[in-house]
Amino acid sequence: MTSTSEVDAVSAKPKKPSNSAFRQQRLPAWQPIRTTGTIIPTFFVIGIVFISVGIALLYFTSEVKEHIIDYTNCNSISITEDNGQPKRCADVISAGLTSTCVCKINFELLTNFTGKVYMYYGLTNFYQNHRRYVKSRDDDQLLGKLVSNSVSDVCEPFAYQEVNNKRIPIAPCGAIANSLFSDELTLYSTTRNEDVPLLKTGIAWSSDKETKFKNPKGSSNLKEAFKNFTKPKNWTKHIYELDPYDEDNNGFKNEDLIVWMRTAALPTFRKLYRRINHTEKGYEDGLLAGNYTLQINYSYSVSSFNGTKKMILSTTSVLGGKNVFLGIAYIVVGSLCLALGIVLFIIHKKYSKSTNMINVTPTTEYH
Question: Cα dihedral angle (267, 269, 272, 278), rounded to 10 degrees?
Fold first, then answer.
């Protein structure tokens, strides 16, 4: 047992920190003295640098070529209204007449898209940044760690589905996977009379595909691995049917799924859908000017949230895709710094002579 004297000795121990430069705050320090001679030039330097960077960003962005097609209200090629006019695919899907609707849009590229060309799909008014939506996923499941007849509670209400009066777990579960973009976009060159070769791999971040998404191990095939699970409610295919002819792009490693699972920060966004195969003859230098046809297997409804859908063909620059906002933001901030520097310079010149200035140094006493 501890004696009273030992307790008193411990309690009497001084709480003063050790006598070191760090603990006693005696380390040497440097603090800038802010004067008009240092602040005003700083504003001018920041302004000039930011405006220069902004102009450079806008220049590289202007080198990026884009062609955007809004196909939200495209008309079906086979389903008509009572008056014989083609019916909008959006109305066909909303009415539940079919699960998919085919429509085509003809367009023309007026200039050559040189370099690497990418196809994106864009959505508006879709809030992937909603807190409950972002959390509605099971990362352990996406890593291939399947627990039979059980999924994480964070996926509710997209965790289970009633199948033949049985409660079957969903794979992949959650609201993000359930809302997977499902339209199928293909491109046809009417000038060359052939399909434009599109690649469905190489569109996801390599870190995502290699680290965050893995298929379950221990089964002879993916269908066997997912035998105790069912598809999400809004899907028409099972997880092992996303790309059955390419094992490395099927299941949880499907790149369309991986791209979609990386949620967007803003309600208007675009995601990479396909790459032009530049190894094919006639497409080595990019996408040539001419007439093209966009065919859409329309199955993704945006009417419920008043959104729109777009297809974007785009080249890239050394800084990536088209981004006008960043260049404008740099120019605006730089201009504000220059304007503020000019204002401060005028004030300094106007009032400095009539103001009693003192020479402030680190040794100046405080009064």
Answer: 170
